[in-house]
Every structure is written in structure tokens, then in C-alpha cells.
Design a protein that fits this description.
With about 60 residues, this protein is of the alpha+beta class. It has a single domain, classed as Alpha-Beta Plaits (2-Layer Sandwich). Helices cover about 35% and strands about 30% of the residues. It is built from two helices and four strands; from the N terminus they run βαββαβ. α1 packs across α2. The protein is globular and about 25 Å long. It starts with a strand and ends with a strand. GO terms for molecular function: metal ion binding. This is Copper chaperone. It comes from Pseudomonas segetis. Keywords: Metal-binding.
Length: about 60
């Protein structure tokens, strides 16, 4: 499981955008988003670099924790 601190998440649209971009690349990924702590936890076959790039593609800055 990878844990990212993500800048700029504020609402349900943010959660959907991040979840959708990850699930498009790995349909079996488990994505948990916590807006209060600005954290995204991902259990995926993709590595941290790939996941960070996907979160960036969705428009958010991701920092591996």
C-alpha cells in the first residue's frame, strides 16, 4: 500500500478525479481518500512513481509519505 500527501484536494469532485484516474490504470486498485488529512492510500499493482504520476495527471501534487 502506498500513502501520498496530496495538495489541493477539497471536495468530492477531487476524490472522484483521483479515484477515476487510478482505477483507469488499475481497475482492481483500492483507493482511500481522506480530505481532512489530505492523504490518499492506494493498494495497487502500480508502483509509487506510476501512482504519483496519475495523481498529477488528475491535477494534484502528490508527495509519497
Amino acid at each position: 500500500m502506498q500513502l501520498f500527501k496530496v495538495d489541493g484536494m477539497r471536495c468530492g469532485h477531487c476524490i472522484k478525479a483521483i479515484t477515476d484516474v487510478i482505477k483507469t490504470a488499475d481497475a482492481q486498485a483500492q483507493v482511500e481518500v481522506d480530505l481532512a488529512s489530505a492523504e490518499v492510500r492506494v493498494d495497487s499493482i502500480l508502483d509509487a512513481t506510476q501512482l504519483g504520476a496519475l495523481i498529477s495527471k488528475a491535477g494534484y501534487a502528490a508527495h509519497l509519505q
